[in-house]
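Two proteins follow. First one:
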Amino acid sequence: MLSVSNIQRAALKPVSFMLADGECLVVRGPSGAGKSTLLRAIADLDPNEGEVRLDGALREKTPAPEWRRNVIYMAAEPAWWAETAAAHFPSPQEATQLAQALGLAPELLTRPLTTLSTGERQRLALARALARHPRVLLLDEPTAALDAEAKSLVEALVAAYRREGLSVLWVTHDAAQAARIANRLLTLEKGEVRPPEAKAQA
């Protein structure tokens, strides 16, 4: 269980929510609404105020490397620190399995990352994150560069990990995707949570 209480920073007003094991909370809102800011704050990548707990353990009481192993942020264009994706995986076998599950040829793992498309790098970054077996995955537009078939593979793989208890906070501008994957929606506008729209009365 991830608990977020009044997390805030510049351009982000206090946000609070609970994220249960295996749940997917989709974050929506226009560009500049604070979606990436929220994810980066939860991952403790930028200075922020508020309280974040994982299974009751306070973020500030958890060593930073341990927190970032359990709560992984994946940017829309993730950073890499080696020439190939293969160098980022502890297990070549798991890397191959994850790549294939995402519709990628295993040989892409050993090609220079600079020669791969944005969509290929996005999927390999997701594989890299899943290979670390986090408790919470913070996904920032992970399928923005993908076609419909590749999107389906990403959604299916994340769903499989959710069935094992992975909690997901997923930013998407795709309303149809949000309807497919979300247990709940959180909408941001100008750095503030917008209340859910009231259902029309019969």
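Second one, unrelated to the first:
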Amino acid sequence: METIRFIQAFSSDFLDQFFIYVTMMGEEYFFMSIVCLFYWCIDKRFGYKLGFAYLSNGVFNTGLKHLFKVPRPFVKDPSLRVLRLETAGGYSFPSGHTQFTAAFWTTMALEFKKKWIYPLGFVLIVLVGLSRMYLGLHTPIDVLVGAALGIGWVFLSNALFEAAERTGRKTWLLILVIPAVIGMFFFREENYFKVVGTFTGFYVGYLIESRWIRFDVKASWWMQALKIILGLAVLLLLKSGIKLILPESIISDFARYFLMVIWVTVAAPLIFKPLARFCGSSAKDTTDTTDTPIARDP
């Protein structure tokens, strides 16, 4: 608490807005937009890897929160200054924002190995963790453990994904999925069901798309822009629309997030493929096989 008070002693209107924007870089809208960008437009395989690392971290983090049940710092000390309270759902330990940010930048660094990514990722992990303390939503131990878990978990997630891709045995990823589903019998809470619904939907979508759809991310720049605008718009509509249709329950939360990710991984690619062909923006095979000599036995 003393550390939080020390950080908040430097508070100002500028720092309030600065750390509110910084903490938004550790939230689901930011990460899911980046995952969709890679998956739909840049590198589908890395989109899968990033999605599994991020979502499995989400399950891990939410499960730990409900296992330890550590109250938020402002619950222990109501005198603390609190901002962006709407991002403080559930328990405090470990910090989800910090864990997700650490997982994201670790995955990016391991994939691209660019010198500028390492310091950028480190600074953003520190800033997001600092923002959570400045806003009065987490303690230093929440942030430090969240960062360590986010970094460490990525190596496990990446190893399983690479093994599944290399061997073609995508069922190996059930090592991550099955414990998450089993946890639903113990952690009967809205946030846990949402993140497991998202993770399960992502895995099911991965199986379906890899086997039957296999869409190509290549397209013209304006088609890429259309993918992002259309894809994210429908995703937001589904998030709000399904909630109006389904009864309010944790099972409905699971189903809603499951269907949202099925849109991302299966339905959207099914639409993008013919749309790209119709607009003439997909890569065309220009090889003319009609004049190719055919070798014949004498």
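SUMMARY FIELD: Residues 250-279 form the longest helix (30 residues). The chain is about 70% helix and 0% strand.
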